[in-house]
Amino acid sequence: MKYSGIGKRFLLPLMILCFVLVLNNTAQASELSGIIMDAYTSVPLSGVTVQVKGSDTKVTTANDGTYTLDLPRKAKVIILSHEGYQPLEIDIKGREVINAVMTQAGPANKLWE
Fold first, then answer.
1. With a cut of 70, which residues of the chain have pLDDT below it?
2. Any idea which architecture 31-110 has in CATH?
3. Are 104 and 112 in contact (CB under 8 A)?
4. Domain residue ranges in the chain
5. Does the global pTM surpass 0.85?
6. What pLDDT, on a 0 to 100 scale, did the predictor assign at position 22?
7. Which residue intervals of the chain are DSSP H helices?
8. Distances in Å between the alpha carbon of 107 and those of 12, 28, 103?
């Protein structure tokens, strides 16, 4: 098959563009894991919601306070929330492990001061 002069100039860039698009669509999201603990007792917290800010991607910590979360490509911040605790927003900054401590909210927090 013969290509005209104009077609030859655009064929290689077009092929490269298609290759890049395929790679972007098949790239796996990175994984984030860690453990969440109570700030005062150092007890692991189960049932903490770990959510990627601005998305529906979220998990809940296990009984030992651990979590593993598949991150969307553009994830920048996670939000930690648990009833009775102050919510936290943490920058991911390319990390694969984020451990955190949560502080009790409201009157329960006053007992420790």
1. 1-29, 107-113
2. Sandwich (2.60)
3. yes
4. 31-110
5. no
6. 46
7. 5-26, 107-110
8. 66, 43, 12
